[in-house]
Structure formats: structure tokens, C-alpha cells
NmrA family transcriptional regulator (Streptomyces kanasensis), 303 residues
Amino acid sequence: MRVAVVGATGFQGGAVARLLAARGHRVRTLSRRPEGDRPPLPGVACASGDLGRAEDVRALFEGATHAAVTMPLVYDAERVARYARNVAAAARAAGVRRIVYNANTRVPARPTRTAAFETRRAAEEALRGSGVPLVVVRPPVYLDNLFSPWNGPALVDDGVLAYPLPAHTPTAWLSHEDLAEAVCAALTADGVEGRVLDVGGALTLTGDDLAAAFARGLGRSVRYVPLDPAVFEERLAGVLGAGAAAGVAGLYHHMASGADPDLMAGDAGAAARLLGVRPGPVEDWVARRPWQIWAGEATGAGR
């Protein structure tokens, strides 16, 4: 395949681009970042460009047979709509055979006032309107979010796993690696065109279940502590900026409200069976991370 990967310089799209390149496909992306500020993407051609410029997106898609699309952490409705329209037009003009759209998150059945959901819903509608065969992948919450400066130190030093989801919320935690497997499979799998797939991990876990899986992976006791979404947003703003942090945190504010408690739950493996993938156990993912890099850096986040 010749795959145009939108979002390959981000964590989710990057995992997809690296897996496709490792399997021998030709992969291209574009980025607004200076060349020296881009993450390493072996085997991936990266051009300078902006999703907001139609000519840049057309150049990315020229000669592409397939596309994998992940929107950046932008939650302004007008900007996201423009990005999606540009991608839809470029994919249609290039004769792309299939688009796989990673919506970044699950999306509630009914409209909300949460930009994290509604901008992704609008992008999905724009891509569907392109007329190019579309598969939508909606992941839950990423395990990789937990391997971070605001989680790692408290986990390593104190055995505290703090995250802004209520402890009782059933969640099909997924790794970026398993997301990439799902997206790559969706590019060619039979019987999935036009489908919306709620992908997820092998099991649906509550906070206590997640802590138990981490305990098995780390070989030490771990307890789950629900983090206030407002505190999470404040800390995230120091990394992503206020706008992106508010967009990301909106998802957690919604979940904390209890309005849609099963939104992040698993689908009993239905999507994995359709795609022919097998997400790995949480404890295996945990055991493969170099958690000790966070030792001695606890900030009291989960205390």
C-alpha cells in the first residue's frame, strides 16, 4: 500500500505510521513542526505542510492508495472541520481505496457540548461525505497516558495509580501498539467498510481492576486513586497549552458527570474479531515499560 498517514508526528498516528513502514508499506505524512523537532519515524517520508492548507493535503495524498487519519489535539470546531474537508477532498481526488479514521475517543450516541466528542463526530461526517470507503475506529482510553510525568513518579515511588476516571467506570484500556494493529488491519479487512468499530483492550477494567493488572506487571502493590479532572486539566495545560488541555480534559469531565458511564467499556471482543487482532493483557504492557525512569520524582499527584 501507499498510505497517507494524517497525524503521524503524534503518538497515535506515529504508532500507525511506524507499524505500516515496518511491514513494508510506503508511508507519507506532513507536519508543521520543523524537521529537527519531529519524532523519529523510520521509513516514513515527512513533508512540511499544514492540514489547513488544501494544497498541502492534496500533495500528501497524491499517489496514495489508502489513508489513516488521526486529527491533532485541536478542538476548535472550525479548524477541525476545515482539516477534515481538506482530507476528504484530497482522498477523493487521489482515488484512495479506503480511509481509516481514528476518532481519538469513543463518541456518545447523542450530541453533547463536549468539543472532544463533537469535533471528532463532525470530522467523521465530513470524511464519510467524501464518498471514499470509510472505516471508523473509536478507541477508549490509552494505557500510554499512564506512562507519563504526572503518573509515573507516584506509581513507582508510592504505588499510586492516579487518573481522572471514576474508580467504578468500566474501561477497555488500549495501548498505542494495539491501536496501530487495529488501524492497519482496518485498512484491508473484509466486511468492515462503512462500519464504526469501538476498539478496545482484551478486558473491561474498573480502576481497582486496572491497579491489580499494574500490580501484576510491576510485582508490587498498586492502588487506584481517581484524580479530579480539573486538577488533571491544570497539569496538562503545562504540557499541551490551555486550549488543547481543555479539549482533552472535556472527555474526563463528561465521564465524571456520570452521564454515559459505559462509554469507554469493551464490546466483548467484537471489533477485534472483525479485524483479526488480539489486544494484549494490560500486565504485559506494564511489564515492558521502563518505569524506573520516574523513580524519586513524585510530585504528590495521587496523594
